[in-house]
Amino acid sequence: xxxxxxxxxxxxxxxxxxxxxxxxxxxxxxxxxxxxxxxxxxxxxxxxxxxxxxxxxxxxxxxxxxxxxxxxxxxxxxxxxxxxxxxxxxxxxxxxxxxxxxxxxxxxxxxxxxxxxxxxxxxxxxxxxxxxxxxxxxxxxxxxxxxxxxxxxxxxxxxxxxxxxxxxxxxxxxxxxxxxxxxxxxxxxxxxxxxxxxxxxxxxxxxxxxxxxxxxxxxxxxxxxxxxxxxxxxxxxxxxxxxxxxxxxxxxxxxxxxxxxxxxxxxxxxxxxxxxxxxxxxxxxxxxxxxxxxxxxxxxxxxxxxxxxxxxxxxxxxxxxxxxxxxxxxxxxxxxxxxxxxxxxxxxxxxxxxxxxxxxxxxxxxxxxxxxxxxxxxxxxxxxxxxxxxxxxxxxxxxxxxxxxxxxxxxxxxxxxxxxxxxxxxxxxxxxxxxxxxxxxxxxxxxxxxxxxxxxxxxxxxxxxxxxxxxxxxxxxxxxxxxxxxxxxxxxxxxxxxxxxxxxxxxxxxxxxxxxxxxxxxxxxxxxxxxxxxxxxxxxxxxxx
Length: 545
Fold this sequence. Notes:
Elements: H1 5-15, E1 20-24, E2 27-30, H2 31-47, E3 55-59, H3 64-75, E4 79-82, H4 89-98, E5 101-107, H5 111-117, E6 126-130, E7 148-149, H6 150-154, E8 171-176, E9 184-189, H7 190-197, H8 213-218, E10 225-228, H9 235-246, E11 250-252, H10 259-269, E12 273-276, H11 278-294, E13 306-310, H12 316-325, E14 330-337, E15 341-347, E16 359-362, E17 366-369, E18 385-390, E19 397-398, H13 402-408, E20 409-412, E21 415-418, E22 422-426, E23 431-437, E24 442-444, E25 447-449, H14 451-458, E26 464-474, E27 478-487, H15 495-502, E28 514-517, H16 531-543
Parallel strand pairs: 1-11, 3-4, 3-5, 5-6, 6-7, 10-11, 10-12, 12-13, 13-14, 27-28
Antiparallel strand pairs: 1-2, 8-9, 9-19, 14-15, 15-16, 16-23, 17-18, 18-22, 20-21, 22-23, 24-25, 26-27
Helix pairs in contact: 1-3, 2-3, 4-5, 10-11, 11-12
């Protein structure tokens, strides 16, 4: 046995085979049923020559089949490659080439794009076509790339667990585009992934779990009903799914985010824990909740005890509305990255919501570095700003990118750290205030302005629905703070009105010098900000170019 994703899942299967594992819509599968199909697909992949170290991509929305794919890949010691289902042809070509994809598991609705890309990638020899979870009758042509339908691939394959022994050192890759640049493949050893993303460390105490600890929990009655709202094509949702599978919880997933349907599911299934991506999900959800309450027939969700946000801003005004609606629930802001895993969490208090950014307690092996990459003493460094770094269990590096790996994964005083570039200000009691990604920092008149801090303040304005802040070249200041704003329907807002409003929350040098109104703020499927696109929109508006 090894500290391997496949082994950890199989321990849960053995502990609770008849408990429900995953549910989509009205369809639920038990741990034993999920295992059987994963074994069948794994045997099919083996028959196609897929084995240890081969890269297999999943190009699909959330579905039970998607979960089966993740498990089948790790069962044969292959390497999971996540694909953003919003990619266009050129982006797919880049990923298939960069990731050296040898097999592809794809929903049928994306067949036309696969047909366009397939001839350009000689190493891609196997394509399994999943039924589309939203359009089950989709009949897109798959003949041009010799696609094999899901049912045909699984037919006749063994459901037995008879695979070779696995290793802690098997790789699991998460492709992350972050907020800038081309997608990068973060290479995790399975053991390290489990420790910092799969629940293998007690996030508060730092104590290491033993291999069977989570599966022992799976034997207990009263396991949780959890609902990660983000697509499994992103690392955070994938990690949450696996962590809950290891512990025997029921995980509900949906192929498409819809706030009304989300509340209906939470109510019907008695969901206890939801994971969401900041305001991009929190705002439409609370508005749907409030609208239903105003109708006189509110949703009834007494079991919803924990609400967790990560990867994007959960702004004070939106957070306040949630806390009013759920006064007895626990709210947490969690921080981390595909390159670090969990770095810290903050339990939010309705009477003490930060106006600067999420305030979190640092997790195990997390430190703050100064500009010379020296570790700042947390106790004596209160008020100082630096880059967050995580030691201990960190990734091997970026796939096929030695230069970027050397920039992100640093050796400091003999210890290896992951430093993706998130800045934070040190507070008391081992806490920090998150300020945002340094690559997005605006240098204006010799001062550093972190976009997320300004965005948090701007979102308090009643006319603002969403906002991103970028730096635009300025002859006098070097860069000027520019607010790219999506207004509420029917609302108006002028720059001076916004600047006057913000003076209560921000220093003068942080106030926007330009305001650009757009129909919709650019974000990806999970709500992560797309700053390069926001800057393009700002430049188009301000310069006409």
